[in-house]
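Predict the 3D structure for this chain.
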Amino acid sequence: MNGVNALSEQALNDRFIADSVCFGCGPSNSQGLQLKVNYDPNDPKKIIGIFLPDPSLIGFPGITHGGIVFTALDCIACWSGMMLTKGPKALWLLRSAQVTYHRPAREGEPLYLSATIPNLAEAGRIQTVHNDARNESGDLLVNGQYKIVPLSPKKFMSVLGVKKLPEGWASWVDSTE
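Done. Predicted structure below.
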């Protein structure tokens, strides 16, 4: 698959939020998907990811549950907001999604994800992310349009009802990189 070598480099999520326990992309969640995220080396306006679904994540025998693929696409959509948009750093949340399932994701097969924001909206505005999941042969399994919304740390904590951000998240938002 295109860009797989980029995923052997240090993943963005390992670099920026290593202590995250997000079910999809959190490096510190041993029970999560362990999705690895990076820039596509062939297209700087694209974020790519890979994960190998655990056999316990099936819906029908031999088929990875569609909700797991949806979750992985949610994470990569938010990463595209974090890494591809201009303006103040923000924490991104999924607002809505429209997803089309084309083929089942087979148990034991890695899933290759990609996300782009074809029409970048003004900084601080909702972005529409186009993303997809493919198998190792490059067959389209799922594609979607995910609307993501940027939130300041204060607003993010208010929406989630938490009093503090995890350390890695707080330092990412505060970094100037």
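The chain has a mean pLDDT of 91.
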